[in-house]
Amino acid sequence: MKPLLSSYLIIILTTLILTISARRLLPHNFQIPSTIERKPNSNNISPRSLSHYLSPNQKPILPSGTMGNTNTKPTTRNQSLYITDILSKTREIAIFSSLTRDIESVSARFNNEAQNSTVLAPLNSAIQDLPRKPWEDPDDYERFGETEAYAGKEGEGRAAKNLRRFVEAHIVPEAPWKQAGEEGALQTVGGGRVWWKKERGKVYIYPGKIEVQKIDKKASNGEVWVLKGVINYA
């Protein structure tokens, strides 16, 4: 009987010691948060439920061999978008986009799936840095004066003509534009001759060596190339 009682007392003492030790490791007045939820069995976790265990600032680790670069050039055409859709959604070329909408023939072209185009769209900053507005021409000021050059219906007509010349200088009526070099030169809608080259990992439009910042999403009827400069439209 005594051995049994001794064993029982040893068990009780051991339990008390462990309890006291555990309490010392916890902060005073510690309470288990009521928001803690039981995680499901790992075998039953679905891909959707994984987001429940990530903080807003965390992202899932990419599997081995997965490309993490989101700036990769698109390689397929987006059959659901026209050029006009891409232009209107790209803020960095918003000025050029708004100018194209003022020209009926250009706007119609960008919404026509049967007419492919490579649009050389200058950045907002490139247009803002021009010495004059896209619809202005020094010859008009010299001939009609600053106050009359674009006044009245005739002046508005001159401004519209100049604006169209500017926009059409940035439209190549072909896409995709595959051949590089001067031998692959094409005529713009405005009549100018342009070509592109790749030098040290960067693409440039010639003449003028204007750097292409990026080739945006490919639409069902063409491509949008974002330029750091402006094509000569004089």
Written overview of the protein:
The protein is of the alpha+beta class and 234 residues long. It has a domain of 110 residues: FAS1 domain (Roll), CATH 2.30.180. Helix content is 32%, strand content 15%. The chain has seven helices and seven strands; from the N terminus they run ααααβαααββββββ. The chain has a seven-stranded mixed sheet with strand order 2-1-7-6-5-4-3. Strand 5 and strand 6 form a beta hairpin. Helix 2 crosses helix 3. The chain is globular. The chain starts with a helix and ends in a 7-residue tail after the last strand. About 25% of the residues have low confidence. Pfam families: Fasciclin. This is FAS1 domain-containing protein. Keywords: Signal. It comes from Helicocarpus griseus UAMH5409. InterPro entries: FAS1_dom_sf, FAS1_domain, Mug57-like.
Report the span from N to C terminus.
113 Å
The third-level CATH topology of the domain at 83-178 and 214-227 is FAS1 domain
Helix content: 25-40%
How many strands appear in the DSSP assignment? 7
Main β sheet profile:
7 strands, mixed
Oligomeric organization of the protein chains = single chain
Tell me the radius of gyration.
33 Å
β-strand percent reads 5-15%
Task: Describe the global form.
Answer: globular
Mean pLDDT value: 77
User: Numbering strands along the chain, what is their spatial order in the largest sheet?
Assistant: 2-1-7-6-5-4-3
User: How many individual helices?
Assistant: 7
Structural class: alpha+beta
CATH architecture of the domain at 83-178 and 214-227: Roll
Q: So what's the CATH class of the domain at 83-178 and 214-227?
A: Mainly Beta
| Contiguous uncertain segments of 5+ residues | 17-75
Helix-strand topology string: HHHHEHHHEEEEEE
